């Protein structure tokens, strides 16, 4: 039997070259948005609201800054309610179309969440907060 000992340098995210940062981002993105469940909960609450509300009731919904986190406590609530209220103000009353507006808005919100968590600043902050270190190629150590 033989024991081999070696030393490897580990890096903080900010110390990686661009190629390694891209690898770290890709690996992190494969895990999905950590807020995906919250966006989905907001979408479900919005669809319930659409299904049970008449257009006139939708127009009475708090709007803009007043609509913040109205169903689940997550910020996607405001994006979804504002999009549906805007559609009704524009004359849309078909519930299926309103549900599609909500779905598209939820998808956009999730996409923006993912984009924001993959910036250099956000990646470095997450890595530091969680004690993550990386191999030179960007693979999580």
Question: How is this structure best summarized?
Answer:
The protein has helices at 18-30, 36-52, 55-59, 76-89, 95-117, 120-130. By secondary structure, it is an all-alpha fold. It has a domain at 36-117.
Describe the structure.
This protein is mainly alpha-helical and 141 residues long. The protein has a domain at 36-117. It contains six helices and no strands. Helix 2 runs parallel beside helix 4, helix 2 (36-52) runs antiparallel to helix 5 (95-117) and helix 4 (76-89) packs antiparallel against helix 5. The radius of gyration is 21 Å and the shape is elongated. The two termini are 27 Å apart. The mean pLDDT is 92.
Overall shape: elongated
Backbone structural class: mainly alpha
User: What's the tally of helices?
Assistant: 6
Largest sheet: none
Q: Would you identify the regions where 5 or more consecutive residues have pLDDT less than 50?
A: none
Distance between the termini: 27 Å
Strand segment tally = 0
Secondary-structure element order, N to C: HHHHHH
Helix content: 55-70%
Topology:
Elements: H1 18-30, H2 36-52, H3 55-59, H4 76-89, H5 95-117, H6 120-130
Helix pairs in contact: 2-4, 2-5, 4-5
Main attributes?
single chain, mainly alpha, 6 helices, 59% helix
